[in-house]
Amino acid sequence: MKKPPFIKLTFAPLQFYMLPPLFFILSICLAPSTTALGNETDHSALLAIKSRLVAHDAGVFRSWNHSLHHCSWNGVTCERKYNRVIQLNLSSRGLVGTISPFIGNLSFLKNLTLYNNSLVGHIPPEIGRLFRLQSLLLFNNTISGEIPSNLSACYNLQRLSIGFNKLEGKLPPELRALSKLKFLGLHFNNLVGPLFEIIANITSLEGISAAGNYFMGHIPTNIGKMRNLNLFMIDGNEISGTIPTSILNCSLLTTLEVSYNKLHGELPPNIGLKLPNLVNLHIYSNQFSGTFPNSILNLTSNESIILGANNFVGIVPHDFGRLQNLTWLILEYNHFEGDINLIGSLVNCTKLRVLGSG
């Protein structure tokens, strides 16, 4: 009789079969301790942050004591599952002091809001460890130094508002990695160097506020790819070149403020048709030339038209009465022809507060 074929059976070691249950048991046992460790880290970090700050109002930190869980402290918000700190909001509390580097230990932090205080010192580079951070609002303080390049590691950042401080130096080129950024507020610091070389490809931007610095360079043609842009404020810099016609692709634009720069060329004649939502048009004290774009009179929601101190020529239309929301109209210091006494055409502009047409 023919023997059946020999079948070799192999058995894995017993410990192999024990691994899944073992992992399951370990995960159950370790989860509470991991959560407790995270809570202690947050607790210690908050106390370290407090140690660098003095509040004019003693009530700001009254709840920051060991009798309350830190998730109940004033200005602190935690997520529910693990009680990890996701928001620290101490804005407008009269705080004096510096931002502790221990801020980088709040690893679940999504929103850091410290604006409108009297903070000094530098932006701690440890903030770059907060990869969950979505909003960093430090404006209206007295923070100095340079912008840390490793803020680029906060790749979920959507709002970066650090205006009205004493920041200096160049905008770190690494910030071009912030592909989710929606608002960039750099206004009224002492920043220098290129601006648009860094941010030109961040097409998610909805607001750019960089007025009152020393930025240089040109407005790039690919600004038209920022289809959600509604706020563009670069007044008081050293930006040169022209306003590219591609900006007309930014049809949601409500504020276009480029006064006190070195821009030249003509305004697109159809600017009032392509940018129907434009409320504020400020181009004062540049070197713009050409004629007044009559399409501006289609902007019936417009509140301010400031075209003064340029090289415009030609006839100024007398149909401003259609702009019934107009509060500012500045056309002075140009080379317009004929009579630009607009009083008669402004009788319907009942909200008008400032007129400069000399």
UniProtKB/TrEMBL annotation:
Gene3D superfamilies: Ribonuclease Inhibitor (3.80.10.10). Residues 40-78 form the Leucine-rich repeat-containing N-terminal plant-type domain. It is a single-pass type I membrane protein. One of its GO terms (cellular component) is membrane. It holds the Pfam family LRR_8. It is found in: Membrane. SUPFAM superfamilies: L domain-like (SSF52058). The keyword Glycoprotein applies. Its main location: membrane. The keyword Glycoprotein applies. One of its GO terms (molecular function) is ATP binding. Keywords: ATP-binding, Glycoprotein, Leucine-rich repeat, Membrane, Nucleotide-binding, Receptor, Repeat, Signal, Transmembrane, Transmembrane helix. This is Leucine-rich repeat-containing N-terminal plant-type domain-containing protein. It comes from Saponaria officinalis.
